[in-house]
Amino acid sequence: MRNSFNLDGKVVLITGAASGIGAKCVEVMAQCGAKVMATDIDEQQGLKTVAEFKTQGLDVVFCQHDASSSDDWDKAIAATLAQFNRLDILVNNAGIYIGGTLLENNLEQLRLLNKINIESIFLGMKAAATVMKPGGNGGSIINLSSVAGLIGVSGHSAYGATKGAARLYSKHAAVEFAQLGYGIRVNSVHPGVIDTEMGGQVFQDLVDIGLASSFGEAKNIVIGMTPLGRLGKSEDIASMIAFLSSDAASFITGGEFVVDGGLTAA
Ligand SMILES: NC(=O)c1ccc[n+]([C@@H]2O[C@H](COP(=O)([O-])OP(=O)(O)OC[C@H]3O[C@@H](n4cnc5c(N)ncnc54)[C@H](O)[C@@H]3O)[C@@H](O)[C@H]2O)c1
Question: Is 1 within the bounds of a domain?
C-alpha cells in the first residue's frame, strides 16, 4: 500500500519503532516525506529496522529510548533537535500487553502497564509540547490506545485500563493545548487486533484464560467477530496516523479514531 498524505519536511518522533505498528509508521511517514527519529528500548532491533529503511532512501535515524524514562525523553528530544532542528509530530506508540483475568492479575503487572503505557504518554506529550509550543509551528501528537480502551474485553482489564486512560489523557491535552493557543493537536488511535507480535500475545491469552482451545481457534474467533473478516495490518494503523499527522487533519483534535474492521460497531 502506497501512502499519499503530504508530510514533506515535517519532523516526526515515533516511539516503539523497532517493530510492529511503530516500524510501519516509520516507513509510511518517511515515504510521505517526513524526516523520522525512530526510537525504541530495543537498540539491536531498532538499528536493524532503520538500516533497512535507509536502503530505501528514507530519511530515518534511530535513537535508543525507554519511553517510560524521563531522562531518556531528554536524550531523544535532544537527538531529534540535533539531527533535524525541530519537531512537528510525536507518535506515542511504545506499549506492552499483559493479559490474564482480573483475579489472576497482580499489582506489579498493573504498575508495569501503567509505567510503560501511560507514564510514557505523559512524558512524551510534555516533552514534545515543550519543544513545539515556542517553535510556533503547532504540532500533532498521536497516542496509541486500543479498542480495549473503548469496550470491555475478557483478559484485557489491566491493559484496557491503561488504554482507556490513553484515550482520555489525549482529550484533556487536546482541549488544553487548543484553548491555551499552543496550536498542538492531540488525538488517540484505537486499533483492533493487529497482526504483530502483540497481536499474537492476545491470541495466546484467549487460550490461557480458557476462551479458546488453541492459538488458531483464538485467531478465528477474533476474525469471526470482525465484520471485514480479517485481522488488521500495521499499515492500516500507519495510514490513519499519517493522516492525523498531516495538514489535511488540521481541524481534528481530541478525536478517537477506531481502526478495527468494524469490530466495535458489530
Ligand atoms: N497489535 C495489536 O493488536 C494492538 C491493538 C491495539 C493497540 N495496540 C497498541 O499499538 C502499539 C504498538 O503495538 P504493536 O502491536 O506494534 O506492539 P509490538 O509488541 O509488536 O511492538 C512494540 C514495540 O515497542 C517497544 N517497546 C516496548 N516497551 C518499550 C519502552 N518502554 N520504551 C520504548 N519502546 C518500547 C518494543 O521493543 C517493540 O519494538 C502499542 O501501544 C499497543 O498497545 C496494538
Answer: no
